[in-house]
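[audit] Reproducing an earlier prediction to check determinism. Same input, same settings, fresh worker. If the C-alpha cells differ from the archived copy the diff job will pick it up downstream; this log only records the rerun itself.
[audit] input (288 residues):
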Amino acid sequence: MRRSMMFIPGNNSGMLLNADALGADSVIFDLEDAVSPAEKDSARILVRNAMKYLNFSGCEIIIRINSIDTQFWKKDLDEVIPMKPDMIMLPKSGTADHVKAVASYMKEVEEKNGVDRETAIIPLIETALGVENAFEIATSNSRVKAIFLGGEDLTADLRCKRTKKGDEIFYSRGRIVMAARAAGIAAYDTPFTDVEDEEGLRLDAEFAKGLGFTGKAVISPRHVMCINEVFSPTAEEIEYAMEVMEIIKTAKEQGKGAISLRGKMIDAPIVERARQTLEAAKSLGGIQ
C-alpha cells in the first residue's frame, strides 16, 4: 500500500543517496520543477546512476519526467526506463493523448533496451484542462495505475491564491477521486507545503483521506510519519473490520440473511469497507 510519496530533487545527491531511509512508501525523483534547464542533463544522469548503483529496496521509485511540451521528456525516458523504475510521473497531464504519447514512447524505449515489463504511469493533473479530463486521463492507457493532483500549478492555472484550508481546490480534489475510483485506480493528494505547520498537515491529510484519496505526497521528510499514520488503518478500525468479517462468516454458516454488530445492521457496503481495511492492514504488515 502506498500512503506517502516524497519528492526528491533530481539534482540533490544527498537526498538521492538516502531516499530509502526517509520513511516514505514511494520516492519521486524529480527531473522537472526542482531542476533548472541548465541542470537537466546532469540531474538526469545523476538519477540514472543512483538507480543503477544503489539499492532502493525499502521504497518504490517514481520518476517525474519533464512535460511533453518540452525538449527534455524523451531524453528523461531514454535514461531512466532501462533502470526499471516502478512508475513514471507525467506532469501537466491535460488530455488522454498526452498519456498515450508518453506510453507509446516508453514502449519503444523498453523494447530497444530489452526491458521485460511495462513501467506504470501516474499522470500528474495540475491544470484546469486536466481536472476536467480526469476520467479520460485515468482510462487512457493500461499503464495508468493512479492519478495525482498537483495543487500549486493548478491554482496558478486557475488564477487564484493557494491557501492552507484548500477551499480553492475542493472541486478538483473531488473530481480526481471520483475519476480514479470510477477507473479502478488509486488517487493521490497534493502536498501540504508548510513544513512547520504539523497541525495543519494532519488536518489537511485527514480531510484528503475523508474525500477518498489513497495517500498524499510530501515535500519534507518531517511530514512522512504523519501521512503514514493518517493513511494507515487504526488498531480500532482493524479490530472492527475483523469482527465484521467474522460475524458475516457466522451468519452465512447459520443461513441468516440479516445480522447486526454493536447495534448496527451489517450490509454490503460495511462488509466492503471492512475488507478494504483488512487488505490495507495486511499490506502494511499490521496483520498476517
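[audit] rerun output stored. Observation attached for the diff report: The chain has a mean pLDDT of 92.
[audit] end
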